Queue: 4 jobs
Job 1
Amino acid sequence: MAEPSPEERKKAPTEAGPALPGDSALQQPKSIIQLMENYSKIERAQMGIPGMDDLVAGGLPRGSLVLLSGACGTGKTTFAMQFLYQGAQMGEPGVFISLEEQPETIMRNASLFGLDFYDLIRKKMFAIRYFELYDFDKLKNNLDEIIDEMKARRVVIASSSILGLFFEDKYKFRKALLELGKAFRQRNITSLLISEVPEGSETLSTFGVEEFAADGVITLHYAKVGNVFMRSLSIRKMRDTIHSMKIHPLQITAHGIYVYPTEEIF
């Protein structure tokens, strides 16, 4: 049987199924171009981590709350500290909120990669606070005070694994994170929320709700390839921007994290 002509296809009833490929070929590129133009208008916060901004069209959409997830040894804290350090170099004050590890330990480890946070503290471009609180409202009030004092543009909270213990109900935790993300967006603050996951787990967060409250999810992997372990990174979601859908190699070098945007892990 001969294939219908383009004129006959146009006259076909709708119940025959979707239009054949090519019928809307003149419209589709226009919509894609418009989408790209819309994304190009989004204000972005460059992460400054080599190779990382290439994966998200130039940087995180400003005001986003991004979940940074991974097992132990994947480089979560190093990634977050680089994000704050590079932000300070671009004139954006940052705040690190630790609910577990002592500030001195965090800054000492960062100094091994040449990240001098002591100097940033003297210049009032960085603040780090340790809170041993189990009351979300008190934590939020303290965070607001520090943000106001620093005029912060970037915030890191470590970690959701401890933060979630403030709540008996994980759905209340999800609601609290949504409120936190809304408050950051209103102040145009770009933030990372660190989340720990078990080794080999397919989950994206500690409590299974953080990824739904966040605007984006960056996952750090640590997998055995042959007889060596290899670090890599993927972006599960990122609102308001296009992003890479591939798994990219990642190395922790003498100068911190380096992402290889043109290479892939198969």
Job 2
Amino acid sequence: MEITENQVTVAVVYDISKNPIFSSTSEKNDGDVIFPSEIDDIVGAIRKLGFRCIVLDGAKSLLEYQKRDEISVVFNKSKGAIGVDRKSMVPMICKFLSIPIVGSSAYHMALCRHKYHTNNILRGMGYNVPLAQIINYQDKNLKIDFPIFIKPTWEGGALGIDEQSLFFSEKGLYKRVEYLVSNFNQPIIAEEFINGTELKVAILKDKKRDIYFVGCVEILKNSKALKYDYITRKDVLYGSVKYRLPEKSLFLKVSNIAIKIHEDLGLESYSRIDFRHSDQTGETYCIEISTHPDLSIGSSYVSALLQEDINHEHIVSKLIEGALPK
């Protein structure tokens, strides 16, 4: 399809040093980054839909871009630099410049980035969440019963999570917390570990029809259910994570909770909400909210919606259509 100047121009913004279409051979393993393969998938879908697409290198490039007036909508995949508010830069710029954007607001980006704050807000709203606290290796201030799970408070993509993240006693705990603080320079959250099924719920809002598309997958590790186990950074990077459909009753339960959380927090066009379903008590706990989920073709978000016959191209189309002015 020939693209004319009158068509929609989508600016995909993410943090790169080279054009992502040509840099997929050198993926970074040392940070919460967007992999070039995800951008390849998004850019490919945008062009298949007949939209003009440009790729900009983060918030600074968006500010410096000389033809900003030609941008119809920003497809935000920028993760910024450092700090709890690092994902907020592009949404703030778009708000200031009145550019439509795919994705959540700066407020929601920062809120859901801070796992401990999100946990407390959801608890105050009446949702089931694991007991949690910020743990300090100097004060040794643990107030939660074992087993506990520890991780950096501001990170995603299982960054900072490995085989030493689950503890059944204090042995080695504070040494691990000190290691995480020194390496990630941020608070460390300790959570009650919920043993059981892990589920990821994908939410996509069709703003034109004011309806939700919802899909859900159960997380597997090396094709096995998670029993006193969890996903590490290495599992994410090296393909150990697989998906399958959960039981129908569990799918309905977590999907209804996820939609309520999405609405109660005022999230925008899409989100992914993660749960653990306790095999012991039968209770379901929200463990994380992503306002910036991975949109690569093989991701949990896309895999979940594919179960509902919503493919990757449809997802990208709905997101762009929902962001454009009516």
Job 3
Amino acid sequence: MVQQKTICIILTLFSIHVLFHSNSFSDTIRVPQDFITIQGALDNVTTGDTVLVACGTYYEHNILMTSGACLRSETGDPQCVIIDAQEQRGGILCTGVDNTTRIEGVTITHGVFDERGKAADIFCEDGAAPVIQRCNIVVNAGDGIGVGLTGTAPSSPTIRDCIIAYNSWIIAKGVACGAYSDITIIGCTIVRNGAEGIRLTSNSTAVIQNSIIVFNDDWGVSCDDSSEALLMCCDVFGNTGGDWGGCLSDQPGLNGNIAVDPSFCDIDGYDLGLLPDSPCIEGNHPAGAACSLIGALSEGCGVIGIESISWGKIKE
């Protein structure tokens, strides 16, 4: 009898140990140590796991994100990991992923539209709600981030501290949102995209805070009649289609919003750091509003490197 009780106790303790560890611990999968490719790692993770990518350039495209997982560069710096789509349908596809899904500290570049019009960089569909943080989404021939443009359910990503820039095709938006989807954009720099900085259609909504939206080749933010945007502590300036018109017509000067040149270090040289006198640096706000840093990068030059690629090369 004593032996039977001892066995039962051991089995019970073992079961508790297995249950505790299976529910409370997550795995870190390393690229390229554990898997050579980012996609290979993502195919072998579950909710709560992290794919940690060593610094380098990874020639991959159409990467399918796993719901509940975190994809992150080993340093958290977007210049550490470059995902180069090599002029294929690019970037990362988020289909139905939940709001615990994270993409952090990577650069996505050199992607193009495919025949279905999916975004070149990060595409969210079927109710996807990832957090996209501290990423550079740059130099592509397509939208930077596409939200709810296809699929069966509205999507709602959160985009924080990202640079979405130099996506140069003539209809390439920085962010394109539709189909009753909603986006939250905080602390981003959206500059020199081939069309609108942000485009809202089909009953979509956006809340945009502490972001720079400048020098895009159409409106800074455009909405159709069914969509709306709320901006706070944002700089919208120098967009060829207009800055504070349309759905933003009642917002300039309110909630810390401004329309001034952000004073980048060298916009033509792909350096989007801010000069010391930039109105987007905390404490320099032209109206004295209590806004913190506006945009993804603070004071300091030479802090971002983006390899230029011409539209002629992309379309070859």
Job 4
Amino acid sequence: MKQITKSLIALPIALFVFAATFISCEAQKSATANNPDPAHSAQNSLDYDGIYRGTIPCADCEGIKTTVYLMRNNTFKTVYDYLGKEVEPFESTGKFTWNKDGNTVTLTSGNDKTSYFVGENTLTQLDQNGKKMTGALASKYILSKDNYRILHRKWKLIDLMGKRVTTSETMNKEAYIQFSDQENRYTAYAGCNSMSGSFSTEAGNQLQLGMGISTMMACENMTVERELSKVLSTADHFQVDGNFLILMEGTTVLAKFVAPVN
């Protein structure tokens, strides 16, 4: 009888201790969520300085090609290019500040203020209330470092559909692709004909390559050219890993390129 009585007394005590421990843990989690560790904020743990690029929605044009340069001395430059309108790109310069959590920067130029949430190699433009955009166009407000990294570099083709590419297969000439933000066009070459067309990038490194013009020469070995042309028509996103550019369709690697360090 005494043993039963002790057990009945011990049970509520154990439940009380468990509940107190659970509440304490939840309180700690809530405190951590509401008060992020400043040592692990974007400001302190990410290489946030660099060049970010994307095309944000525009009410009366095809889009606003936006390039943001963030410097470690808390200064910035933003270049806006209104696509489809006969106006020159214009620049905005000034200083930026961080919020108390170290995850958002506000760019100030005169009376103009624009805020961005800082992620891993991305800037997400926020609305006037400091919130992320919502709706079908939300992803278009994300600027990416990778969107800029692919530009103005001559990417040498080294791997195509899982096979190593050698110059003997491209008539001893270097196969490559090059992207230019001048009218958003690319040029590709695989030893015989030059291929070119328009391209666009979006958040998440999405990529669309338009098949434009090509010279019409007939060459002895055009296998690599035909395969590269097919890759350009099917690739839907890309990755930049150091000096390597990877074109992909879904999770399938289609082609791999390398470029010198800039």
